[in-house]
Amino acid sequence: MFRSFSVFNYRVWFIGALVSNVGAWMQATALSWVVLTQLTDNDATAMGVTMALQFAPPLLLVGVTGLVADRFDRRKLLFVTQGSLMVLGLTIGVLLLLGAMNLWTMYAFAFALGVVAAFDNPTRQAFVSDLVARENASNAVALNAASFNTARMIGPAVAGLVIVAVGTGWVFLVNALTFLAMLVALLLIRPAELAPRPKLRSAARMADGLRYVGGRPDLVVTFIMVFLLGAFGMNFPILASTMALEFGQNADGYGVLSSILAIGSLAGALLAARRDRARLRLVIGGLGLFAIASVLSAAMPVYLAYAATLMFIGFATVTTLTTANGYVQTTTEPALRGRVLALYMAILMGGTPFGAPIVGWVADAFGPRAAILLGAAAALVAFCVGGGWLLFSGRLHRHETRRFAMTIDETRPISVVAPEEFSDEVAATTPIRLPEGGDVVPGRADAATRRGR
User: Fold this and answer.
1) How many helices (H) and strands (E) does the chain have?
2) Which residue has the higher pLDDT, 421 or 335?
3) What is the DSSP letter of 197?
4) Residues ≥6 apart with Cβ < 8 Å to 296
5) How do residues 21-72 score in pLDDT, each as one tens digit?
6) Does pTM top 0.85 for this prediction?
7) Which among 99, 105, 110 has a CA at the least distance from the CA of 27?
8) What is the pLDDT of residue 206?
9) Which of 130, 165, 262, 428 could form an S-S bond across to 152 if both were Cys, CB 3.0 to 4.6 Å?
10) What percent of the chain has pLDDT over 90?
11) 314-325 tens-digit pLDDT
12) Is 335 helix (H, G, I), strand (E, B) or coil?
């Protein structure tokens, strides 16, 4: 489960990310609460707009951010993005303490945070794979998710207490300080021990990543499922804050809900770290569990019962997203990984500008329980998309030896010869492994190889 910790660079990164993520979750909690209760009169639609402004830039800038992550030194790029996020958090905190913040100013800061995050997210995701050997990439991604969700257990609860005790402005100042941990970690990382990266051709473009994904139906289906979950299911700040108000809770009660969700999220991340590789079937299964848990949470009559269901929602969400992230990273060519991950993050986060205002409007018009059911319906549609693809692609079929059993063919991680290592001699002397079972019908060899048969 913890094999990536044997690498010095990963240990340093993990500690820095854990501290920084605690502050990030404190800020996310405070940002949602201040928009809902201080800058508006419990207006869930305004919160949806705030989330949309934060998550729109990754979609708008996807043509640039992935190429930047692939072309430039990711460690140096993270210095810039993490430092910029620290300055923005510090500025928001000061304005709140001075009483100079209003809704439109917060909208502007939300958009600015989104612009910086658009460059930070794909760079950070790809940098995790640079810290360890390729065979440990899936484990490193899962442990990274565990760090993220451990912070999610701590940050929102602490933020709720700080808001009640001294106000929201101080939460943003504490978050700014936590970025120092990440900056120190980046300084301590040994560049010479990072995994080598293929050099990009001067003509490398984002379109190369789009064409690559377009030629991988499994990635297309993964992106569709992630989009539906991100757009309608992962609007927790809207859903939990409005449900907290419905149950008569204050900021501390809302923070506790975030921490309880993180208990299930951490369990999902740690279980993902135990697996030898990411499997698409787990992405689909996680979506089914999310739909069921969301329906149950919408039916809960009291605060504690609702809180208990959030553990299952957190487990399902992280199982789905961690597995999808690991699947994308471990089956994508290294030279294109940054661009493909930029597309992945744009699809995941870019769904929020589309879905969050709709979810916020539904919560205002019909109540938060209806908004939760909307997310459950989206997850069910995503589950059907994934299950249908397994069936119609031929990966789900009857077992060859057991009469009533079914089996699923796997997509194996792709082994790639890096561009600068390619030569005619290597191409002429490298044996090609053919699928078992005799001759391969022309046109079907690639499909059989992708299924691992």
Assistant:
1) 17, 2
2) 335
3) -
4) 309, 312
5) 899 888 988 898 898 888 888 888 888 888 888 888 877 887 687 778 777 8
6) no
7) 110
8) 60
9) 262
10) 26
11) 899 888 888 888
12) helix
Cα–Cα distance between 337 and 212 in angstroms, integer?
Answer: 10
* Cβ-contact 316, 286 below 8 angstroms: yes
pLDDT above 70: residue 73: yes
Q: In terms of C-beta distances under 8 Å and separation of at least 24 residues, what long-range contacts does 181-185 make, across chains too?
A: 181/15, 181/16, 181/18, 181/19, 181/20, 182/16, 182/17, 182/19, 182/20, 182/78, 182/82, 183/16, 183/79, 183/82, 183/83, 183/86, 184/16, 185/12, 185/13, 185/15, 185/16, 185/17
Residue 142 vs residues 204, 234, 329: alpha-carbon distances, Å: 29, 19, 11
The residue with tokens 């500008």 is 353
Is the separation of the CB atoms in 269 and 143 below 8 Å?
yes
Report the candidate in 221, 170, 196 with the shortest Cα–Cα distance to residue 334.
196
Other beta carbons within 10 angstroms of residue 166's beta carbon come to: 11
Tokens of 252: 């501390």
d(CA 400, CA 407): 8
Angle at 132 between CA 129 and CA 134, to 5 degrees: 70
Mean pLDDT of 114-137: 81
Predicted pLDDT at 385: 93
In order of 2, 44, 72, 84, 268, the CA distances from 147 in angstroms are 12, 29, 26, 22, 12
Answer for the pair 345, 58: CB distance below 8 angstroms, yes or no.
yes
| CA angle 115–119–120, rounded 5-degree value | 105
The label of the residue with tokens 């697996």 reads 275
Model confidence at 434, pLDDT cuts 50, 70, 90, reads: very low
Tell me what the pLDDT averaged over the chain comes to.
80
What was the pLDDT predicted at 204? Answer: 52
Q: Is the pLDDT of residue 262 over 70?
A: yes
Extract the tokens encoding 5: 């910790």
H-assigned helices in 132-168: 137-166
Strand, helix or coil for residue 171: helix
Phi/psi-derived region of residue 432, left when phi > 0, alpha when psi is between -120 and 50, beta in every other case: beta
